[in-house]
Each structure stands twice: as C-alpha cells, then as structure tokens.
Amino acid sequence: LLQCGGNLFDATSIAVKAALFNTRIPKVHVLEDEEGSKEIELSDDPYDCIRLNVDDVPCIVTLSKIGYRHVVDATLQEEACSLASLLISVTSKGALTSMKKMGKGSLDPESIFEMMETGKRVGKSLHIALQKVLDEEESLGTSRQKVGFLG
To answer: Which UniProt key words apply to this protein (predicted)?
Structure first.
C-alpha cells in the first residue's frame, strides 16, 4: 500500500467496504423479569446476527490529469507527469458523494466534467467487481482457508 503512489484512498475505500460487508452484529435481546430488572442476552449462535447494508458505501476513484487527458489509477511514472488529480467517491449506483482536487495544478470545468463521468463509469465497474469477489468469498462459508491470527 505505501509503495503504490497516490492511490492509497482508492485501496482504503475498497478495504473499508469489504470490512463493512463482512461485519456481523450479534443480535441482542433484552429480557425483563417479574421484578422489572432488565438483563441483556447475547445469542450464542454466531450466525444469529445482523448484516450491514453496504449498497451506498462509496468507493474512491483517483483520476490524474496528464496534458489534455486523464488517467485512472496512475502509476508512479504517470503521477510524476500529473500536476492535478481528482479523487471521486462513487456509490454502486453511480452517484457522486464527494470530490477532492489534489496537486498544485489547475483543472478547467470541461476536464472536471469529463473526469467525473469517467469516475462514475469506473466506480460502478469497481463496485460490480468488488461485490462479485465478496459474494464468491461469502459462498465459501466455513470451508475457506483461514490465514493470519484466524488460522
């Protein structure tokens, strides 16, 4: 991550969406006895949980302007040629939730509009690919290989 140039936001946004997709919140039941005291009960079943809806969680797409063109996910060499970049956060439906200009250079309105359209298109494709991978991983269930401290 730290050696991939300026696309740290892109990678981080994908990791955050994947982490939220895999988040399970255990169901909590509040029991009240005859005396009126309340007791919190957590289900012992690890599958008795609530999943988060990540449909509207955006992914970030970085576009770097080089000359009169723009590049998505610029390499280190392409970044060196770019004076300005635009970070665009896009939902799975293609809605822009935020934009941030990076770099010392300027962007004219026409370039910004073109970069926004490219960012929307790339962002939607990114969401589709990420969701496919997450669904494949989910379908493995308990048979998936455990790594790291989970192993």
So the answer is: Cytoplasm, Exosome, rRNA processing
